[in-house]
Design brief:
2 copies of one chain form a homodimer. Chain A has about 350 residues and is of the alpha/beta class. Chain A contains 14 helices and 13 strands. The structure holds a DNA duplex (16 and 16 nucleotides). Chains A, B: It comes from Tunturiibacter lichenicola.
Chain lengths: ~350, ~350
Amino acid sequence: MNSTPRSAGIKDIARALGISIGTVDRVLHNRTGVSLKTKARVLETAEKLGYKPNLAAQALKLNRTIEIAVVLPKQISHFFDPLRAGIRSAAEATVGMRVKVTFHEYPRLGQGDGELLESRLKEKCDGIIFTPGNPRKLDSIINRLTAHGTAMLCVASDAPSSERIGLVSAHAYTSGALAAELLAHKLARKAHVATITGELTTLDHADKLRGFAATLAMLAPHLSLLPAVESHERPKEAYRQTIALLRGETKPQGLYISTANSVPVLQALEEEGLLGKIQVVTTDLFQELVPLIETGKILATLYQRPFTQGKVAFESLVAYLLEEKKASPMIRLAPHIIFRSNLPLFTDRLDDLTDTSQS
Amino acid sequence: MNSTPRSAGIKDIARALGISIGTVDRVLHNRTGVSLKTKARVLETAEKLGYKPNLAAQALKLNRTIEIAVVLPKQISHFFDPLRAGIRSAAEATVGMRVKVTFHEYPRLGQGDGELLESRLKEKCDGIIFTPGNPRKLDSIINRLTAHGTAMLCVASDAPSSERIGLVSAHAYTSGALAAELLAHKLARKAHVATITGELTTLDHADKLRGFAATLAMLAPHLSLLPAVESHERPKEAYRQTIALLRGETKPQGLYISTANSVPVLQALEEEGLLGKIQVVTTDLFQELVPLIETGKILATLYQRPFTQGKVAFESLVAYLLEEKKASPMIRLAPHIIFRSNLPLFTDRLDDLTDTSQS
DNA sequence: TTGAAAGCGGTACCAA
DNA sequence: TTGGTACCGCTTTCAA
């Protein structure tokens, strides 16, 4: 039966000491020009009275405009559109501060991202939310922007050796591990499993594969892993390579598609008559997957919660920019496992990207 | 390459029309004393300029203190402690408004909740967050508090025929459905499955059971469901009834424990030497479950995200109290399925309830 | 029916 | 080293 402490204002403490609010303000903000003993007295009574700044007043007065640029690829829109929607949603919900967000697009991961970031050097902004497709290539420009005073926040995938301020993503290693565990649950006998990924230079994809391989080795030693297939996020290549895989010598009984770009892979499976025959775990959720999950042709999909990633990324970046202490945000969301029976909880949001739902 | 619309203030629109801010304010708040045509003109330019009230200024001027009471049981602390922590976390994060939160506890669901709510009639507050254990019994007091001007928000379980303003909970039906699907994946042959629940008068528990039964019938007709066991959230009764169940004539091969109170049930399983022999799906997460999931003795647990429930409940209630339009918040979170391989993502938070993590 | 002006609780600048 | 004060955007009262 306790309650949050009563809060005193700045003039309460000024009145209590018979001094001016200016002085109190100086003390509370560690500004120069206050004698040590008044400073001590102010701090003491501030503590005693339970001073809590009125954030509304503070925000009103400061009225700072934070400018944030969002630099994300157009492809894969299944993933990046809801991510952008999450950013918009969080931006609209900001209270007590002006935030200006601009969105910038380039074709796909690795194609034009460096250049677009480069161009951001001209129009200085407070922070940039972006996805490093190929971290090695981008480290230099990230560091230059950082040196320029721009807070760089990675979303969806990391660039750990750069000077980015932090990361918001799904926990990629765990996604891979889950995929392995799910396949292990369904494949009781000795079999081969395969993975199809986007681009192994992208850390997120590499992490998934690591989690997958490690967990497979631990939980399902009877399943052996075929070499990973890299689709480079190109539909045609994904299709071609999948066909090759399925017609290869050792045929997989289980398949983990670790990129959201799964349509061409599923098409290949369909054409080879293998949909429903082999166990498939996919990544993320979009319209084409729904009937396949409903009919059990896909065992499960690992939803990376792009909307939430965007929302959290935005909130983290703003918090970082406002904080004094500047803790580095490192947030890995738990992926949602979507089966047939919880699918309806996630489908409503496929059309309506402005939804603010909390899953 | 678009940007979020610039927001105009009240004086921007006053200036644009050459009128005073007082008039604009009257229009925007639907107050009397404005001619119809000025009203129309104001609304039009407000729309055109993209008027967005400065919430900081609004809060500062109004300087209202929202008082919220939280009325929740002490038991089951695994669940309600993190839920309270979520509320605290959200309360601390409020910007630009004074919110006072008081916490009130009663022993367990159905024991003293009515009385404690009753006592809230005396100290009027703006809103109450609470869990209706037995909705029928509480409907009357909920309605009286509502009539009294208090916004009643259900958390964790609903009281649909009362005049509560809304609900924040995990999606109970889906929890049950998932439990059934998981058991169906693991039990390929004809078998019996059983459920152990808390109290079927609690809507949340009834919904879980409905989801479980319906999904079992649809996805796994080879599994037959034994009559539900009600533990009434009492450890001894749960233990006794589980023993009876396990020694009964038709022995279950799968078990769904739909209340967070699973320890006595697991103890009974252990003593009967059945842990690891029959498939078990539990609810929520706490220290005792961790080793059982790690060793595969529990197939999975359905995490109802109590921290997030608390956080979202608080935010929804505050939004409701601040909004003019008063949309009824009805939020069902997607439960997280916790397997062995994603368990580490959830364990870190078991000790540290003040954590603000986003899973 | 409308306009003018006083604050809400801080911040920051200028004067003392 | 201090005190005084204008101002942030909005609400509200009083006067016109």
